[in-house]
Every structure is written in structure tokens, then in C-alpha cells.
Amino acid sequence: MRAVDLIRQKRDGGALDAGAIKAFVDGATDGSWPDYQVSALLMAIVLRGMSLDEAIALTEAMVGSGQRLDLSEFGGTPVDKHSTGGVGDQTSLILAPLAAACGVVVPMMSGRGLGHTGGTLDKLEAIPGFRTNLTLAEMRRVLRQTGCVLIGQTDEIAPADRKLYALRDVTATVESRPLICASILSKKIAEGIGGLVLDVKVGRGAFMKTRDDARALASWLIRIAEGNGVRTEALLTSMDAPLGRAVGNASEVIEAIETLKGQGPKDLEELSVALAARLLILAGTAKDDADAERQVRDALTSGAGLEKFRDVILAQGGDPRVVDDYARMPIADTEIIWPADRDGVVANLDAELIGRATVALGAGRDRTDAAIDPGVGIHVEATVGTPVKRGDAVLRLRCDDRQRVAAARDLLAEAIVIGDTAPALSPVIVERMDVAAAMRMEG
Ligand code: URA
Description:
Order of helices and strands: HHHHEHEHHEHHEHEEHHHHEEHEEEHEEH
Distance between the termini: 29 Å
Bound molecules: uracil
Number of helices: 17
């Protein structure tokens, strides 16, 4: 099967059969398809879409690019959570240790920054020494020691996603229901979990801007995961403005630690606790919803979640002293205040533009081989709804490179709106979808 023929077929709106999809995934993984042909087909998929059957075949081919782990030695039901991509969304760093502190096994496989959204691996690697590229033997050791491991795609598990993910990040080919489904689920199915909680973001800073699109994505994700034997549910959550206050790799790690100390922003804490509680339900270690939430809150207030995070950092080669001493994290020296341009109320902090500005500062990539700067970031000083006077700080930027700051400024000028009245705030959690709700949806 020639790559160019498959690209043409999809470009012209045709469907690809399972054999063609496998040829594409194998070619991308083993390098026999050059990056330009892989990227061309990705763009054709973004523009022309795929049916649910094609998305299922793509997911299965991507799972099949590596091994599917057997975690039965750990007992119980290993579970994981994944987000469809947000700005300032560091819930994974909080909920994985919280759930593990409640006795649940969490083998978490995450991604790097994608488009304007941040990635758990880039955040973790801001911790000096922290390794996300563990071998399978190391992954099992950490899981045995701590009940929780935080890794990325490897040569053995979901290698196709590692390749496609890196290309999608820099070719504007992220916003696609089938590509998002196959990317997320290939990792999750391959890592050997029995339960999955999805945080499906909706709003200005999400890849799905409308509730209908987010529901449709959640429905496919749940149906494909359940079809592969993984019990799955989704929370649809708001992503109009950044979650919490920190955006940027090292600063998000610090905010996650603050949250584990009970001192984090309330929206971030609420979502992290809710997602962790759903993990306990799926793992079968809580009697009911109230019991799950109580267990997670106990792990938070007792400091057990924080201690678990410290253990995981140590087990994965990182410097656990960062938990008590944030000066050990790489933070850029130069601070720039973004002031309110008039008296009023913060009416909008556009999450996508703030995410793109953070990437422009150096927190993300514009080429697959670009190095990121873990120490740059944006801190929200005045959240949506906060009254401000002209000159008050709305954002605080951290970056030592003036050219990068100039690029971020252009984006931020549009991202911030100071109005006369506070807008109605949407709740953090908009809706929950289970398999029955997913099956009721068409398409
Ligand atoms: N997370 C992933 O792993 N892949 C996507 O495509 C989007 C979010």
C-alpha cells in the first residue's frame, strides 16, 4: 500500500480500511513512512474526519504497535485518568498520588505538551532528576514501591502514539476526534488498566469548544475504551479560563504541591478530588460516591497524598526536596507584570491564547526537536470575576528572553478583557457521562 495513495484517498473524503490504517501506523512507527507523509495523512484526517469504525481500527493499530501490559501481579483493578488537554491543568500530579495514597494502583502514562495545552511529562521533568522514560522493569519496580508511576510512551508501550503525538504537536493536527481518541486510548489500553476516568475539557481553551463536540468526543472515548475491556467514564469540565493560577511547567508542579498541602486554588482542588474519587469508584475500593470523596479528602488533609508524591519523585530519580524548597525548581529570574488597562472586572482570560502565549515564552515546542524551558510561565493574579483598578496586576509572566516575551505579548493583548460587570462563571464540572450515556448518543 503506497502512502501517497492512502493520503489521496483520505484527502478526497474516502474511508480507510483496517489494513490501510495499520499500514499507516506501522509505517509511522518503524520510520518507513517519512514524517512529511505521516503529517499529510494526519492533516487529511483532521480535515476529512474518520468514522467510529476507522477510529476503532486506528486505536487498535496503535495499541498493537507495542505491548499490552499485564499488571495482574499488583492485584485489584489498576486505574488511570487522562485529560483531553487543558491550560494550567496539573490535576494528574495531584490525583495520582492521592488515589495511590488511598490504596489504588495507578500506572499513569501521559503525554507532553500538545498544541497550546501543557503535558504532564514536561511538568514532571521540570523536577530536577525526574525520569519519565522508565524501562518496563523500572516501571514495575516503582509501581511495587509506591502504587503509582508516572511515565510516557516508550519503545515497548504505544510507540506509535509517541511518534504521532510529537508530529501533531507541531503540525496543527491536534483538533480531531478520531486522532484524540486513538492517541489517548492507545496509551491507556496498552498500560494494562481496568478502569479509566476521562477529563473531557470543553470551552475556549479546549480542543472541543462546544458542549456537543465534547459530548461526542466523550462518547467515542468511552465506547472504544469499553470495547477494549476498560471500564470508563468521563467528566466534562470547563476550560474557558486556565485551571488554577499557574501555567508553565515548573510553576504548575509548585501549584500541584501547594494543592497537596491543602493550599491550592479551589477550582484545581475540587477537580482533582472529584477525579481521584471516580478512580476509587472504578477501582472498586469505595462503598459509594460519598465514601470515595471522604477517602480522597482524608488523604489530602492528612498529608498522605503529599507524602506519596514525595515517594514517587524519589522512586523516579527526582529530587524530593522540591516539595519543601521551591527554590530547587527552575524558575526564570525575570518577572513581568501584565497590568489591567482600566478600572473594572476581569471579564475574560482566554485559556487558548494564554496557553499559546505560554508556549511562545518557551514552555512548549514549535518543532519536534525544540528544547523547552521549564522555568517560564504565566501566573494568573486576578481570576475572572475579580474587580481590578487600572495598573493592578492581572498576570505575572516569568521569562528571561525578551523576544519570546514580545511574541507572548501579542497573544495576551487579546486574551484579557476587563469589563464593567463580572460574567456568569460556569461550574468546574459540567456533566458526568457513563457508558449508558455514551451509548445513547448517535454517531
Ligand atoms: N491527550 C493525548 O494523549 N492525546 C491527545 O490527542 C489529546 C490529549
